[in-house]
Amino acid sequence: MGDGRPTFYYDLSSPYAYLAALRVDELLPAAAEWQPIALGALIREIGKVPWSMRPDTRPAGMAEIERRARERGLPAVRWPDGWPDASYSLLPLRAVLHAFDRGRGRELTLELYRVAFAQGTALNDLDVVAAAADRVGLDEAELRQAVERREIKDRLRAATDEARRRGVTGIPTVAVAGELFWGDDRLEDAARALAA
């Protein structure tokens, strides 16, 4: 962040971020920095209750995600047991930070999204996350150690704090200079801003 590139903020609990992750690189005219953040911590800090946690808005939001996935030719969305509560896990986010250190962050992110929203498997289990890491060419044993390292935990916290300071209130968000584009349906607007 800060080198002029756009930043794609996401959390693995968000099905809208899943949809955005599958197309952000092809839509944006400049390569984005992918930055995982802890949405649960962010929304607690700003006092926001997301649509997925409200019984009055959850069914419509889920239906909209399923519709977008169908229209884009993606596998039918399968919701992990306990979603969304069980999805606010720091474990897969720490694993992704480790994966970026090994040059496989995007690959692990996309594999974990597939596990969560195409297979319907919650990501709060280290065995599930480690198996996904193995499938994208990461060392499982190394990953199991990395997710417990203080440095990885501190980086996730710092990234989440920085996103909040920039004004991020939800994900997915693409930051372009001082402008924030929040939502899967705002990627085209972010692309236009970048091209201008």
SSE blueprint and pairings:
Blueprint (H helix, E strand, L loop, with lengths): L6 E4 L4 H7 L2 H4 L5 E4 L2 H8 L11 H14 L19 H11 L3 H13 L8 H10 L4 H7 L3 H17 L6 E4 L2 E4 L4 H9 L1
Parallel strand pairs: 1-2
Antiparallel strand pairs: 1-3, 3-4
Helix pairs in contact: 3-9, 5-6, 5-7, 5-9, 6-7, 7-8
Largest sheet: 4 strands, mixed
What is the CATH class?
Alpha Beta
Find the structural class using helix and strand composition.
Answer: alpha+beta
Query: How many E-type strands?
Result: 4
Placed side by side, the strands forming the largest sheet appear as 2-1-3-4
Q: Quickly give the CATH architecture.
A: 3-Layer(aba) Sandwich
What is the fold named in CATH at topology level? Glutaredoxin
Ranges with pLDDT <50 over ≥5 residues?
none
State the end-to-end CA separation.
20 Å
Portion in helices: 40-55%
Rg estimate, integer Å? 16 Å
Shape: globular
Helix count, per DSSP?
10
CATH H-level homologous superfamily name: Glutaredoxin
Q: Could you report the average pLDDT, rounded to the nearest whole number?
A: 93
How many domains, in number, for the residues?
Answer: 1
Order of helices and strands: EHHEHHHHHHHEEH
Strand proportion: 5-15%
Molecular structure report:
This protein is an alpha+beta fold. It has helices at 15-21, 24-27, 39-46, 58-71, 91-101, 105-117, 126-135, 140-146, 150-166, 187-195, and strands spanning 7-10, 33-36, 173-176, 179-182. It has ten helices and four strands. The longest helix has 17 residues, at 150-166. The protein is globular and about 45 Å long.
